[in-house]
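Internal tracking record. Fields below are filled automatically when a chain is submitted to the structure queue. Please do not edit lines marked as system-generated. If the sequence contains nonstandard residues, flag them in the REMARKS field before resubmitting.
Queue: standard
Priority: normal
Entity type: single polypeptide chain
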Amino acid sequence: MTRPYLPLNALRAFEASARHLSFTRAGDELNVTQAAVSHQVKLLEQRLGVVLFKRLPRGLMITAEGEALLPVLGDSFDRIAEMLERLEGGRIREILMVGAVGTFAVGWLLPRLAEFQVRHPHIDIRLSTHNNRVDMAAEGLDYAIRFGDGAWHGCEAEPLFEAPFSPLCTPGIAATLHTPADLIQHTLLRSYRDNEWPSWFAAAGIPRPPPLVRGITFDSSLAMMEAATQGAGVALAPPRMFDRQLAAGTIVQPFATATSLGRYWLTRQISRPSSPAMMAFRDWLHADVRQAYGEVG
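SYSTEM-GENERATED OUTPUT FOLLOWS
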């Protein structure tokens, strides 16, 4: 089937004129004269058999037909420009959509992404964060990095590493903590997973702590740690994800006791085939985890 001829110059002239509502400003953008733009738009109108603009003494008014055509052209030109940009340098640039639980994204992934970009300059990562609840299909994600037990419906999950939880707080609060039982006198910051503090108290030898009735419940460890840094209470979080704050001394880990509540996983939809960009990211991620912690998992 023969494709219809597309008058690209005329389409470009119309699109620019519609954005500016001016043949003159469109000509300035396209580096041609006002008359040339007007002529191209007229040719397009004749070809389509519709009027795209009403010519007014002080500019243009787009018609209903023009309004219908404009977003289609704008999207098409944007996609062409994006593809041309991806083709620069003799190799197509690949886009990799990665969603990561916020704690992992900020505490582990972001400090290392520059290294990935150096190794794979043709891959553009588009990173989004979530609070461990994510719809990969709806968000168009190639990978989602999550925390838990690895059981997510319709997903293949590869273990990355464990990140045991331990109390974290300001140095001032830590100075008042001599035994794990002293924590009961403080505000204990919590996530939406209500088993975390009971699990830690059991690991510390306090199997029946009083109910946790004080404090704010957070859906993000990042927000919870910000509250802890400001002295709002004691957070229970994975120290591995906050090693920069620990090194800086803005927070401290008052007790060595930790409890394992899951691990981080690299997940993808089983129905989504692995692209070269996905395989490159997976291999790099696993290699970096092995270098940092030894065995993956």
